[in-house]
Amino acid sequence: MVQHLVDLLDTWLPTYQEDWVLAVLTQVQGSSYRKPGAIMLFHPMGKSLGMLSGGCLEADLRRHAQRAIQTQQVLQLTYDATDESDTSYQLGCGGIVNIMMVSLNKANNYLGLVKVHDALMRGDSGTYQLNIAEDGASSHAVSGLFVEQQSGSPTAITLNTKTQKVQQQHNTVLNIPLRPPVHIGIFGGGLDAQPIAQMAQTMGWKVSVFDERTAYARTYDFPGCQIIKHQTPSISQDVLKGLDAAFVMSHNLQIDAKTLKALQPLGLAYISLLGPVHRRDKVLDIAELSVDDFSGYFSAPAGLALGGELPGSVALSILSQCHGVLYHSKLTSLDCVML
């Protein structure tokens, strides 16, 4: 189930002029399945996009969405799971969550979500500013604005930046940091790359597969992926700079060396090289590089010590490590991956 906002908006956009309702998690006290800034969309015919809980609240929110459409008023809802004797919604997280529901319409410019979609599709990061209105206020009084990150601003928007409430004059504004989906490059389109591509797409990540060899990285083996059939040194720098992470796994010493040589100056957050330590040293020697030349997280051997040796297990190992790096989690390195 893909949950990135750009995927929700992709589905919403063809019918955005219909009576959709936005539900946004505005505040959490204690624990919650989702964090503030999480967004869900409801259609009057019962369709919903996204999730705000693990399935505990969605049915009740669907009922409230109908009321938001009928009244064209803002709904402020609070779900309190701190009282364990109250089994109304069977919440398992034990926290208090506040949710605002607003009807999307022409009068409130659909809360600026069309422009949010356009910006994310362009690859722009920024902050979605949504003002919080009182319960019962007109839906017309709510506005949403996407403010792009300045191009010269260094890493102002990161994967773990938190949503914040700020007071602006007489309004309370929810600042929700947004960025395009994670974009990974798989350099080597063999059989063992397929589960990486599949798992990454399940998480909503964008996947590009690079392989200059004719028999590799075939389109039908990597559905939904961008396929680039060029030698890495000849690939546009704009394409390579658009990556968040790179997995180098062609199983060819010369190709892997050329790839690392092209990727090293880019300062990607995560680069992994498949194979044991002695192979890593050979590849680096051919590329005239050392481990210390990489400014980001260079994982070689690639992945975490999760056990297993088949492609699916290796894919889980590498993607877990990459996910931890991108979201600034603590990691335990894997001593060696033998393939």
Q: What can you tell me about this protein's structure?
A:
The chain is of the alpha/beta class. 25% of the residues lie in helices and 23% in strands. It has eight helices and 15 strands. The strands form three sheets. A six-stranded parallel β-sheet has the order 12-11-10-13-14-15, sandwiched between helices. A five-stranded antiparallel β-sheet has the order 3-2-1-5-4. The longest helix is centred in the last third of the chain and has 16 residues, at 311-326. The two termini are 31 Å apart. 38% of the residues are buried. Residues 152-157 and 332-339 have low confidence and may be disordered.
Radius of gyration: 23 Å
Sheet bearing the most strands, described? Answer: 6 strands, parallel
The largest sheet has its strands arranged as: 12-11-10-13-14-15
The helix/strand order is HEEEHEEHEEEEEHEEHEHEHEH
DSSP summary: helix tally? 8
Q: How many beta-strand segments? A: 15
Concise synopsis of the structure shown:
The protein is an alpha/beta fold and 339 residues long. The protein has helices at 5-12, 58-71, 113-122, 194-202, 237-241, 253-263, 277-287, 311-326, and strands at 21-29, 39-42, 48-49, 75-80, 96-103, 126-132, 144-148, 164-168, 171-178, 183-187, 206-210, 226-228, 245-248, 270-273, 297-299.
